[in-house]
């Protein structure tokens, strides 16, 4: 049987899909109820596309799910309540988990002069943060061999043919409406190593070794003749 036209669902008293603002570490309770029902109705809950297991006493006419230990990764997750016998009757709640910028990356990098370097500052933030690079406490003055690339997930500084003057501490600054966070990246540029040809050294060692061996053999023969 189709659901009666008057049967609608509500979550926490709201009859339209909505966004629930929350924060990491909090616990949220979502209560779905059938409005205007003339008979007992069974309810289903979904987290994204996965069905939520409900206890037998938590299914008929009203049903609650508890979202505990909310994390940053739960941002954008959708919870949907559906009428079991007509699943086109549904209502959804999207979690909007707000949190300050979380920065990560490789703190220390060593590079040889003349090589290419990438400093990658990974960021997670909601709302999205404004990002910039500082160097040794001041705004980074971009030179020809510097290139900055930014997405919603990282801020990257590429340095081609790194110079000794590129030595220093690079700070990744993330500024969001909630908080400003900083992460330092230390770049150490070493002298270009003088390349020593390996093959001639090996060849010379072999010659010296063979000379010694043949010298010993010749000397032994001479002693034996005596």
From TrEMBL:
Which PROSITE patterns does the entry link to? IG_LIKE (PS50835)
Q: Which GO terms describe its biological process?
A: cell-cell adhesion; regulation of cell population proliferation
Q: Which InterPro entries match?
A: Cell_adhesion_signaling (IPR051275), Ig-like_dom (IPR007110), Ig-like_dom_sf (IPR036179), Ig-like_fold (IPR013783), Ig_I-set (IPR013098), Ig_sub (IPR003599), Ig_sub2 (IPR003598)
Q: Which UniProt keywords apply?
A: Cell membrane, Cytoplasm, Disulfide bond, Glycoprotein, Immunoglobulin domain, Membrane, Repeat, Signal, Transmembrane, Transmembrane helix
CDD domains in the record, alphabetically?
A: Ig
UniProt subunit comment: Homodimer.
Task: Tell me, in a sentence or two, what this protein's role is.
Answer: May control cell-cell adhesion, cell migration and proliferation, cell morphology, and protects renal epithelial cells from oxidative cell injury to promote cell survival.
The name this protein goes by in its record: Transmembrane and immunoglobulin domain-containing protein 1
């Amino acid at each position: 049987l189709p659901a009666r036209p008057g049967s609608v669902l509500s979550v926490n008293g709201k009859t339209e899909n909505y966004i629930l603002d929350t924060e990491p570490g909090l616990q949220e309770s979502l209560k779905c109820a059938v409005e205007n029902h003339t008979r007992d109705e069974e309810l289903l809950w979904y987290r994204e596309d996965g069905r939520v297991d409900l206890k037998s006493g938590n299914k008929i006419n009203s049903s609650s799910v508890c979202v505990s230990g909310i994390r940053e990764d739960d941002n954008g997750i959708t919870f949907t309540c559906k009428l079991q016998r007509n699943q086109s009757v549904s209502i959804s709640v999207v979690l909007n988990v707000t949190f300050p910028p979380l920065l990560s990356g490789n703190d220390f990098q060593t590079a040889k002069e003349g090589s290419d370097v990438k400093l990658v500052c990974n960021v997670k933030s909601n709302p999205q943060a404004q990002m910039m690079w500082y160097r040794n406490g001041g705004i980074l003055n971009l030179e020809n061999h510097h290139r900055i690339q930014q997405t919603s997930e990282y801020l990257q500084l590429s340095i081609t043919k790194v110079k000794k003057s590129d030595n220093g501490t690079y700070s990744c600054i993330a500024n969001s409406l909630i908080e400003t966070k900083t992460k330092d990246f230390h770049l150490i540029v070493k002298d270009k190593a003088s390349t020593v040809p390996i093959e001639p050294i090996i060849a010379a060692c072999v010659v010296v070794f063979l000379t010694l061996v043949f010298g010993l053999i010749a000397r032994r023969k001479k002693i034996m003749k005596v």
